[in-house]
Amino acid sequence: MTAKATILFVCVHNAGRSQMAAGYARALGGDRVEVLSAGSEPKDAINPVAVRAMAEDGIDIAGTQPTVLTTDAVRIADAVVTMGCGDACPVFPGKRYEDWELTDPAGKDIEDVRPIRDEVKQRVEVLISQLLDSPV
After folding, report:
1. Is 119 a catalytic residue?
2. Which residue, of 30, 61, 86, 136, is most buried by count of CB atoms within 10 Å of its CB?
3. Catalytic one among 7, 8, 11, 53?
4. Hey, what long-range contacts does 21-26 have (CB within 8 A, 24 or more apart)?
């Protein structure tokens, strides 16, 4: 696609799935990707169990804040990955859109969040390799 791709991860609360995906994309893509994350109805804070699950895999998302989804964020993204936010995300021609059906980690314990985290990581690896035409 491009030498540097911009990826936007969107879920309803921007407190779990999209934050985990953004954390992996930053770690795996490095300076080859610009990473954005937002929610259609963002919470006040990141899910602490998601923070813990990511820390177990060496990714620190503790300092991130849920952000409201804006049209501008979608406009500048090369790829928009939604995770259960339905039609809240505006659609622009020429962009890559993916909808990842992932379980929401809200209210789940660490044992239930780990498999969600692992699936997010696997999907992010595939996405980055496809966008950059090279393995991560």
Report:
1. no
2. 61
3. 11
4. 21/81, 21/83, 21/100, 21/120, 21/123, 21/124, 22/61, 22/64, 23/54, 23/59, 23/60, 23/61, 23/64, 24/59, 24/120, 24/121, 24/124, 24/125, 25/124, 25/127, 25/128
